[in-house]
């Protein structure tokens, strides 16, 4: 696992034009210099110079135009792998620059999903001319609640609509070429989510509408920037704003789905922005700490600092391994394999929070130096607080992830575990009794699956386990053809144990596998009750445990692809064992936890296997970063 280093990175996994634009972006920032970037940040200077570079080099146009609208340009495509790499680079140099890119991604997604060829062509032309875009979903009263909107569209007798309402938290709303805006018709119904029971009919979605607004047109009133920042997060009003038919992007259920599917695409980039920010912070922190002498020792020789540095390096390695593998799942998605929805939720939720934790720990390493005005660190620290809260809060993404838990945790060959529910006292039995029984039931399920017709049939329906590495230059068209944002409980997963079994020789992977298996037993013997399933606070504790397992799975899949350093992998799982145990204690302490859940949650707690030699090896990897990179002044 290597950190991104602007002085040495060649982006060899990409085609020539992609390498050229990524390198040009790095050279733009290095040429502008750290002092100027920090001054622009402090003075809240709109990044017109950066956007001039984007226009001149056609960076956004090349990376964000689908091949179908490229007019024969072979370099234009929507390629998740290179979009992710650009997100990482921009996060490395400043989250403001990442933000203008990210909001453009969000603003374009409803347009690329639309069947409105006039709007699509217009967007492609504006993008080619250097335009940026905005996503007009959020409102001050409702946040990003996609069910609720007070942007009202009244039909006109001659066709089209008149729009009236306000939007809030709209990045790029001051200068966007087009603003993809979500609203509701005054002559049709929308979902009353407080009264919705069971499946919602298409008629209940009839009133939703997505349209493209023009910030230069009459009726578009820019009110203010709602943040004190270099980025512009707009509040704007539409007052008797005319919406012609050729500006309508989606209506009814398609409009609702376009909003949800846009977030599925856009939130994936948050983790890569966090990775870039953490990489820059790691360089600064380790440089300062290793060169500073206190009480006759380098700061990196203090035991508490060594623990902070090795943990931070391990967390960053985990973020990078997971994210690289997540790219493959996103690019391999199709209507029959929607595992990307879980992968993307974890990318947004877990990776960004791990980045926040890295900044918290590195703040104790870099100390007062991290507050000085010639450092990137304070800018990144402020931004890292925001990333977990963009494109849906952690709670929203956790609720989404939990929808996948039954199918992820229980492969058809685990059907034998259902027998645990009929074992008297299984929920409170000692682990020495229940764990061997559970393992025997798992083994029997795998053994009989090929000969039991129903199990054989269910196993055949399971999504294929293998996802190949996807770095070829191709267009990820499915991301704009995701379809309805429903039937999540039907999504199939492969056997999560296979990735872990391949690394059973690594001590802390083996310990974590025990914890994951014990969690499976908890779900089998002490599943959340109907009342608990309506308790978001309780479910959040369950979700924290669950999401660490697919996080670990993809880390190991990428570690296998990269032939990763076993010491780093072992330390990553030392961290995961500790986090799993911490969340188990939280679950045990929930007031609403049943006695069975309290017992089984304590069975999840494990002590990671300490290895001084492994820790020293990881620390040496981190200290090798000293002097490897420092941004040009």
UniProtKB/TrEMBL annotation:
Family: Belongs to the acyl-CoA dehydrogenase family.
GO annotation, cellular component aspect: plasma membrane
Domain of life: Bacteria
Keyword Flavoprotein: yes
Transmembrane segments: none
Cleavable signal peptide: none
Cofactor: FAD
Protein name (record): Acyl-CoA dehydrogenase
CDD domains per UniProt: ACAD (cd00567)
Database matches in Pfam families: Acyl-CoA_dh_1
Domain Acyl-CoA dehydrogenase/oxidase C-terminal: 256-400
Organism for this UniProt entry: Gordonia phthalatica
Keyword terms of this UniProt record: FAD, Flavoprotein
GO molecular function: acyl-CoA dehydrogenase activity; flavin adenine dinucleotide binding
């Amino acid at each position: 696992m290597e950190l991104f280093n602007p002085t040495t990175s060649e982006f060899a996994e990409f085609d020539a034009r992609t390498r050229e634009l990524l390198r040009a972006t790095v050279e733009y920032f290095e040429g502008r210099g750290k002092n100027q970037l920090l001054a622009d940040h402090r003075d809240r200077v709109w990044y017109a110079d950066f956007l001039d570079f984007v226009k001149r080099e056609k960076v956004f146009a090349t990376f964000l135009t689908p091949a179908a609208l490229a007019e024969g340009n072979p370099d234009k495509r929507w390629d998740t792998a290179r979009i992710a790499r650009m997100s990482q680079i921009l996060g490395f140099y400043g989250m403001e620059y990442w933000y203008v890119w990210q909001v453009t991604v969000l603003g374009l997604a409803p347009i690329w999903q639309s069947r409105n060829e006039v709007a699509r062509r217009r967007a492609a032309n504006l993008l080619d001319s250097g335009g940026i875009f905005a996503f007009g979903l959020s409102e001050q009263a409702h946040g990003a609640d996609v069910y609720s909107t007070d942007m009202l569209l009244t039909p006109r007798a001659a066709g089209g609509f008149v729009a009236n309402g306000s939007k809030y938290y709209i990045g790029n709303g001051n200068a966007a070429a087009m603003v993809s805006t979500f609203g509701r018709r005054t002559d049709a119904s929308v979902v009353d989510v407080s009264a919705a029971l069971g499946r919602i009919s298409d008629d209940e979605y009839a009133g939703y509408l997505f349209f493209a607004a023009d910030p230069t047109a009459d009726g578009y009133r820019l009110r203010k920037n709602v943040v004190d920042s270099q980025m512009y997060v707009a509040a704007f009003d539409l007052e008797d704003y005319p919406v012609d038919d050729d500006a309508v992007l989606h209506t009814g259920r398609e409009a609702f789905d376009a909003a949800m599917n846009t977030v599925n695409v856009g939130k994936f980039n948050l983790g890569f922005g966090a990775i870039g920010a953490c990489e820059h912070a790691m360089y600064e922190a380790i440089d300062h700490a290793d060169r500073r002498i206190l009480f006759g020792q380098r700061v990196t020789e203090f035991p508490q600092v060594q623990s902070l540095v090795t943990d931070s390096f391990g967390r960053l390695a985990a973020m990078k391994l997971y994210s690289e593998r997540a790219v493959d799942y996103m690019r391999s998605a199709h209507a029959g394999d929607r595992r990307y929805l879980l992968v993307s939720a974890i990318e947004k939720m877990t990776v960004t929070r791990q980045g926040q934790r890295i900044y918290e720990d590195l703040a104790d390493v870099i100390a007062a130096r991290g507050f000085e005005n010639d450092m990137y660190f304070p800018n990144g620290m402020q931004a890292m607080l925001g990333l977990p809260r963009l494109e849906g809060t952690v709670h929203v993404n956790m609720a989404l992830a939990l929808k996948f838990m039954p199918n992820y945790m229980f492969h058809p060959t685990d059907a034998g575990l259902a027998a645990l529910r009929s074992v008297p006292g299984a929920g409170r039995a000692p682990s020495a009794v229940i764990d061997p029984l559970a393992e025997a039931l798992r083994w029997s399920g795998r053994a009989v699956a090929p000969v039991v017709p129903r199990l054989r049939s269910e196993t055949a329906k399971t999504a294929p386990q293998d996802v190949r590495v996807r770095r070829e230059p191709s267009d990820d068209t499915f991301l704009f053809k995701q379809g309805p944002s429903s039937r999540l409980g039907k999504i199939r997963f492969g056997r999560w144990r296979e990735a872990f079994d391949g690394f059973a020789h690594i001590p802390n992977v083996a310990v974590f596998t025990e914890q994951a298996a014990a969690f499976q037993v908890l779900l089998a013997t002490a599943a959340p009750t109907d009342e608990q399933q309506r308790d978001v606070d309780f479910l959040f504790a369950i979700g924290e445990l669950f999401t660490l397992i697919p996080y670990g799975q993809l880390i190991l899949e990428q570690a296998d692809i990269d032939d990763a350093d076993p010491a780093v992998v072992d330390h990553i799982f030392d961290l995961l064992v500790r986090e799993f145990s911490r969340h188990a204690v939280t679950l045990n302490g929930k007031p609403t936890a049943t006695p069975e859940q309290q017992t089984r949650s304590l069975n999840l707690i494990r002590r990671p296997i300490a290895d001084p030699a492994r820790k020293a090896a990881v620390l040496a990897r981190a200290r090798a970063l000293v002097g490897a990179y420092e941004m040009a002044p």
